[in-house]
Every structure is written in structure tokens, then in C-alpha cells.
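Below is a concrete protein record.
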Amino acid sequence: MKIKDHFLSQETFEIRETPVKGVFKTHPIPENLSSYYESENYISHHQDSGSLKEKLYKFLQRFNLNYKRNIIAQELYRNASVLDYGCGAGEFLKFIEDDFTTFGYEPSDAARNFAQKKLQKTQLLNEIDSIENGSLDAITLWHVFEHIEDQENMLKKFHDKLKDKGLLIIAVPNPTSYDAKKYKEYWAAYDVPRHIFHFTKSGMENIMNNENWKIKKIKPLLLDSFYICMLSEKYKKSPIYWIKGMIYGAISNIKGLKNYEFSSLIYVIEKK
């Protein structure tokens, strides 16, 4: 399938299935991939603008943050050690740092600067190798795993850093959801070339159910469908993209209740 980078460059890329069934990869991966993140519209790196759009985003973001915190709170004890890998501007860490011992890693200088200004208790890391092996109770990756090219090496590092039965919590878009099938090449969550990999539910199961990991549970990220559908409608140049996005986002969630193919899925994965 050929997909255009609607967000920034307007260049066309191809998505091909990898040797792992259900896992797809963007081709080609640009050598200057970091330049494809350089936009003021990359909202996770640009906070507190005061606009109406930003205020609405903040309201929905708070709902999402509380939902994510509840997922880890159900699995971990108070003050458990949590690393948010790819922590962006630090919103999730700010939300949980009073309840857990928190660490953050973010490769983007701009995003890390935002995080440093708002975080009080969290330790921001220059590299995760500085964390002692076997010391973490959980590692979270909220829409980050799809951005990592050398996943095999990163999974090994995560495995080393986690305690026995520690948790790896990964949220990724789902290309077999209703909204992905509806919007096809306009589906905003393909987000090529920034999203290097694309995972179906069976693809994640093929990667994670092995001698090192076991998927413990799968949960939906319900608000993602609305944002993704609105952005997809915008890419299609719909004049009422926000209305149509809300409608089709709701339809996607309703259909997801029947087949569990939600727009985005959270995988709670246990270290063996």
C-alpha cells in the first residue's frame, strides 16, 4: 500500500509486510528522519499555547492520562518504579509522579525541555543504560513503539531493565480497526515515515508471546479514534472534518466493542 505523508512532507511511502505476519514496515526510511518531526503542529512537543484547540486537547488529554494511570495502578503498588520511554513533553509523568517513582527518556531536545520545566519528582535520563538492570517495575511506551526501528535490540534492553514479572505497556495504532479500513491511505495513524512499523493485533501477539514475554491483557484507547478520524477527515479536505471525525470515531468504538479491533490498543506485557 502506498501512503502519503499528509502531515508534513507530502512525500509518498510504501507499507510492506515484514517476515513477521501481521507486522508491516514503512519503506523507505529516510536518513534524515528527525527532520520529519520538525513542525509546530507536532502537538505533543508544543504545549500551553492557550488556544481553544489547545484547551480542548488538554481536556481530552486529562481523560486519557487518568485512564492510562488507572491501567498501571491496577497492576503496580504505590511508589513502584516506572520508566516512560519516549515521554514527550512529560504530561503522563507529571500526572503519575506523586504516585510512583518515575523516570523519563525523550530523544527530542525540544520535548525534553518542555518536560524539564514541568516535572518536579521525575528523573529525566540521557540514556536508559544508566538504569540498573532488574530495577524497574514497569516501562511504558505511549505511541512510541511504532517509531523505533531497531525493536529487537530495544526489547532486549527493556527485558534487562525490568524486574522479574515486570510490565512492558505498549500503546500502538491498529491498522485493522474500522477507521483504518474506512480511510485507507488517508488514515492519519499510518503517519509515515514517522511511524516505521504498523502492528495488527495478531502481529503484536506474534512478537510478544515468546520465551521472554507474555501478553497479559489488551485494552482500548477509546479517545484515539476521534482524534484519528478528525485528522483523517482533514487530510481528505472535509470542510466539517471535526463533525465527521466525531461521528466516525464513535462508530469505530462501537464496532470495536464487538470485535475488539479498536483504533488504538494498549498491550500489557509481562516479562517472563
Summary: The two ends are 36 Å apart (CA to CA). Residues 52-75 form the longest helix (24 residues). Helices lie at 52-75, 91-96, 109-118, 151-161, 178-183, 201-208, 224-235, 241-259.
